[in-house]
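hiii so um. not sure if this is the right channel but i have a protein structure encoded as tokens and i wanna go backwards to a sequence. like what aa goes where. can anyone help
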């Protein structure tokens, strides 16, 4: 794997860890009252998508278990439609899908 790709995967891993930390002690309803939480989760999802977009097609092909297109399209949606963010999608992604992503990234970056 290219060094730059490994760096991007580590950025994704670190952002996913932070999302798990923030969403682990929160509830969906908190996104309606805690703007800092919402903005933090959105920003971290954007980081994951941007880093995923910067990973080479070759490395993306090595790890088809990662949802490359979903991560990148979510980033694009959050960036370009920032005024119309669906909090339910942010929450379900942060609380259900990101922990799975974290496990996949860990297995890639820290193989047994």
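sure thing!! here u go:
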């Amino acid at each position: 794997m290219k060094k730059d790709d490994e760096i991007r995967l580590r950025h994704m891993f670190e952002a996913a860890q932070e999302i798990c930390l923030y969403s682990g002690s929160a509830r969906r309803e908190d996104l309606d009252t805690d703007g800092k939480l919402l903005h933090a989760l959105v920003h971290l999802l954007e980081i994951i998508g941007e880093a995923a977009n910067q990973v080479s097609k070759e490395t993306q092909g090595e790890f088809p278990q990662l949802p490359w297109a979903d991560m990148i399209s979510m980033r694009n949606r959050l960036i370009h439609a920032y005024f119309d963010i669906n909090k339910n999608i942010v929450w379900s992604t942060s609380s259900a899908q990101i922990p799975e992503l974290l496990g996949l990234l860990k297995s890639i970056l820290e193989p047994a």
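oh and The chain has a mean pLDDT of 94.
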